[in-house]
Amino acid sequence: GAGVSQSPSNKVTEKGKDVELRCDPISGHTALYWYRQSLGQGLEFLIYFQGNSAPDKSGLPSDRFSAERTGGSVSTLTIQRTQQEDSAVYLCATREGNTGELFFGEGSRLTVL
Amino acid sequence: AQSVTQLDSHVSVSEGTPVLLRCNYSSSYSPSLFWYVQHPNKGLQLLLKYTSAATLVKGINGFEAEFKKSETSFHLTKPSAHMSDAAEYFCVVSARGSQGNLIFGKGTKLSVKP
C-alpha cells in the first residue's frame, strides 16, 4: 500500500478482554516495529521484526503481550487479559531493510475501561 | 552502547522567533540520525535525516539540523517559528545494536505563542 496502515484506529475494551491490533506495512519493507506511547510520554519500544522473525522482543512489557508477523507482511500485536495500564496508542512503523527512515502508521488508540 | 538525549522536554517560543531543539547522541559507530515530528493525535512524520553526506541537513517546513561529530550533537533549528510548528519532536539515532538499531529520544514538546 501507499503507507503503513493500522487497525483499528480506536479500540475501547473492558479489563480482562483480549485485543488484537493489526499493522499493514508498506509493500517490500522488511523491518517492522511496534511502539507504545502513553499519554504525555515518549515512544516505548516493544518489538522489532526482520521478515517474519523477531530478533528483539525485549520491550514487550509482560507475557500478556505477543506479536507475530506472517509472510513478511502483516503483523498483529495481541494483548491478553487487558489491564487499565495497557491504555495507550500503539504505533507501528516499517522501513526498507535495516537502514533509512521509518514510516509510521497513525496508531491504534487502546482504551481499557 | 548507543543512546540519544534530548536536552529539553519542553520548549516554548513566540511566533516568528528562532527554534532550537537540542539532541546529543552516543554511538560507537558512524550513526544515521533523524528528526521526527508528531502533531497532536497524528503519527510520526520524518522531518529530516543525516546519513553521512552533508553535515548540514535541510528538511521539510524550513527545519534544518547540523551534525557535529566533535560535539556529538544533532540540534534541530528553524529561523522563524510558525504556529503550525507546535508539536512533539523526536531525535532518533540508527546504529548497530538492539531495538532494530533504532534509539529514540524522549521527545521535546514545542509550544508556539502568538
What characterizes the major β-sheet of chain B? 6 strands, mixed
- Number of helical elements of chain A: 0
Protein chain pair with the most extensive contact, residues per chain: A-B, 25 and 22 residues
What structural class results from the helix and strand content of chain B? mainly beta
> On the 0-100 scale, what is the average pLDDT of chain B?
90
Amino- and carboxy-terminal Cα gap of chain B: 41 Å
Averaged pLDDT of chain A: 92
* pLDDT < 50 runs, ≥5 residues of chain A: none
- The stretches of 5 or more residues of chain B where confidence is low (pLDDT under 50) are none
Number of strands of chain B: 12
Protein model, in words:
The complex is a heterodimer of chains A (113) and B (114). Chain A has 113 residues and is an all-beta fold. In chain A, 0% of the residues lie in helices and 50% in strands. Chain A has no helices and 11 strands. In chain A, the strands form 2 sheets. In chain A, strands 2, 4, 5, 6, 9, 10 and 11 form a 7-stranded mixed sheet that branches. In chain A, a hairpin with a 2-residue loop joins strand 5 and strand 6. Chain A is globular, with a radius of gyration of 13 Å. The model of chain A has no long low-confidence stretch (mean pLDDT 92). Chain B is an all-beta fold and 114 residues long. Helix content of chain B is 0%, strand content 54%. Chain B has no helices and 12 strands. In chain B, strands 2, 5, 6, 10, 11 and 12 form a 6-stranded mixed sheet that branches. In chain B, a hairpin with a 5-residue loop joins strand 5 and strand 6. The model of chain B has no long low-confidence stretch (mean pLDDT 90). The interface between A and B is medium-sized, with 25 and 22 residues.
